[in-house]
Design brief:
Elements: E1 12-16, H1 21-37, E2 40-47, H2 53-69, E3 73-77, H3 85-98, E4 105-107, H4 112-124, E5 138-142, E6 145-150, H5 158-168, H6 184-199, H7 203-226, E7 229-231, E8 237-240, H8 245-259, H9 267-276, E9 284-287, E10 290-295, E11 298-303, E12 313-315, H10 316-320, E13 333-335, H11 339-342, E14 346-351, E15 354-362, E16 371-373, E17 380-382, E18 388-390, H12 391-397, H13 402-405, E19 410-413, E20 416-420, E21 424-425, E22 438-444
Parallel strand pairs: 1-2, 1-4, 2-3, 4-6, 17-20
Antiparallel strand pairs: 5-6, 7-8, 8-11, 9-10, 10-11, 12-16, 13-22, 14-15, 15-22, 16-19, 17-18, 19-20, 20-21
Helix pairs in contact: 1-5, 4-6, 4-7, 7-8, 8-9
Length: about 450
């Protein structure tokens, strides 16, 4: 067994050791070469409690071997018996992450045959190119913690590991579940891969070469996709349009993953997002608690909770009294103008990354029944200078993205829009020579979107 540890030189490596032959070979191999490569070696063991006394026996076996080698060991024991392999895998990752501060990476004993089994399994499930990557060094992040996972033995066959075990007299224990055909991967290991090797000698090694090529090409496509994804303020994630379907689908998947924690999205969702590119501006697709809006240059994907609550409103008198920021995340307020603002009917000023727009209006022309709210079906706007239009059509004329329209505060009396904060007042509340009480409405300049 021979593997290059050069890329791990000088690292603090924590070996995940179960007591089985693969992990014992990994621990022995790293320990024998730690000084040569400047590696600081530790180990961890996870007792899943899925095999009763046998699990405890294996953990004690690992502890005894680490003590003989002088390798520090962290032992983890599940509070209760874990139900299945999926739950066990998730718990192991939590254990690995617990070591994040004490090491640079956790090494697992996956080898070339494991890689072949993974590729065949993913292929049978209809996985895309990402599933053909097989098992590679990777990085995991959970609850803000990041940790690298490395596989130093990934280019070694199971037979080479067995030879290393025998040549060095390394003790190990067998996990009886590895010999059961109840698990799909075991059936591939015991039945499919041996038959494939018999039909095509060296198949596992050829699959390994294929998986490395797939990983390299997958990384290349991911880098191209990443260029298309960008946050759009606090409004969601924008995905630039792309004629290359494969790259756009990847970009859309990245965008969804940033704002949607679960993994129950499917390829059908991304096909519909790609189809949305051919729709007209303003068209939308709702899925999984998200809404994708077709905009000029691409799609804006927004969590539905960011979209305005249609029935939410506040009496204008209460809004003026100081509880102003109840609408939207941007600053919104109404107050008397100061001396400088009194000299202009409309002002704009920058604050941080935002530009605020100040609109002046006649307070006495605002009906007592007026409220501040978000848009509703049937709203109409009497434009400054005259002429009434459906609010949606007015937004279209102003090129306001569909995803933002429901998040812009409005001053309304019934279905009549008296002011679109950050944009324009209606003709009905404009100041004139008879105005006695002028107020300023200050909000983010929505004409800058």
């Amino acid at each position: 067994m021979d593997t290059d540890l050069g890329k791990y030189r000088g690292m603090r490596i924590c070996a995940a050791v179960s007591g089985g032959r693969d992990s014992m070979a990994l621990l022995h191999y790293l320990h024998a070469r730690a000084a040569e490569y400047g590696i600081t070696l530790t180990a961890l063991n996870c007792d899943h409690k899925m095999r009763g006394e046998t699990s405890a026996r294996d953990s004690a076996f690992v502890a005894d071997f680490c003590k003989k080698l002088g390798v520090p060991l962290s032992r983890y024991s599940a509070r209760a018996k874990l139900r299945d392999e999926g739950e066990a895998r998730a718990w192991r990752l939590e254990c690995y992450l617990a070591e994040a501060g004490a090491c640079d990476c956790v090494a697992t004993a996956h080898h070339l045959d494991d890689n072949a089994e993974t590729v065949l399994f993913n292929l049978a499930r209809g996985s895309g190119l990402a599933g053909m990557r097989g098992i590679t060094d990777t990085e995991i992040t959970v609850n803000g913690k990041r940790l690298a996972l490395i596989r130093p033995l990934i280019a070694c066959t199971r037979a080479e590991i067995d030879e290393y075990i025998a040549a060095n007299g390394i003790p190990y224990v067998d996990d009886e579940t590895n010999f059961s055909n109840v698990y799909t991967r075991n059936r591939i290991r015991h039945n499919v891969l041996p038959e494939l090797e018999d039909a095509v000698p060296g198949a596992a090694r050829s699959i390994y070469r294929f998986s490395r090529i797939a990983a390299e090409e997958d990384d290349c496509l991911e880098r191209q996709a990443e260029k298309l994804v960008a946050p759009r303020g606090d409004c969601g994630i924008f995905v630039s349009e792309c004629t290359e379907r494969a790259i756009f689908r990847r970009a859309a998947r990245r965008a969804v993953a940033r704002i949607y924690e679960r993994k129950d999205y499917t390829s059908a969702h991304f096909e519909k997002l790609y189809a949305l590119l051919s729709a007209g501006t303003g068209k939308k697709f709702r899925f999984l608690g998200l809404t994708a809006f077709r905009q000029e240059g691409g799609l804006l994907i927004v969590p539905d909770e960011l979209l305005a609550e249609e029935r939410r409103e506040m009496p204008f008198a209460e809004f003026v009294s100081g509880r102003a920021n109840a609408f939207g995340s941007a600053p919104v307020s109404v107050r008397p103008p100061d001396a400088a603002e009194s000299r202009a009917a409309e002002t704009g000023r920058a604050t941080g990354a935002r530009t605020l727009k100040t609109l002046h209006f006649d307070a006495d022309k605002v009906p007592e029944s007026a409220v501040v709210r978000f848009r509703r079906a049937g709203d109409r706007f009497e434009k400054f200078g005259g002429g009434t239009k459906k609010l949606g059509d007015w937004f279209t004329d102003k090129k306001v993205p569909a995803a933002l329209r429901g998040r812009i505060p409005l001053l309304c009396d019934g279905g009549n829009v008296l002011m679109v904060f950050g944009m324009e007042i209606s003709e009905s509340i404009k100041t004139d020579k008879n105005t006695k009480h002028t107020l300023c409405a200050i909000a983010e300049d929505c004409t800058k979107n």
